[in-house]
Fold this protein.
Amino acid sequence: MKRCELISVAGQIDSATAPELDRTLQGLLAQGKRNLVLNLRETTFVSSAGLRGFVAAAIKARRMIPRGEVVFSEVPPSLVETFDVVGMRHLFKFFDSDVEAVGGF
């Protein structure tokens, strides 16, 4: 059994694209895939709508039994700064590579 699902996210996550990402994440969680690694290497922007989707997925994962988690890998410095500015960095784990993120489960 796989320990987690690895999802690569590319481009901008804004009010137009966040609903699709949210449906994808919620769908994986509904299938019982409780540990998610989101690779943001190719992501250039995350709006408040995208951040809400990340938080909603994390909350749902953490409420699952056994408890799940949403973590990030290969996050560009500009996006780490976004998480810092809005005070959300403490809600998630950040890893430098997919291997480290997957190994964290």
Remarks:
- The two ends are 12 Å apart (CA to CA).
- The chain has a mean pLDDT of 95.
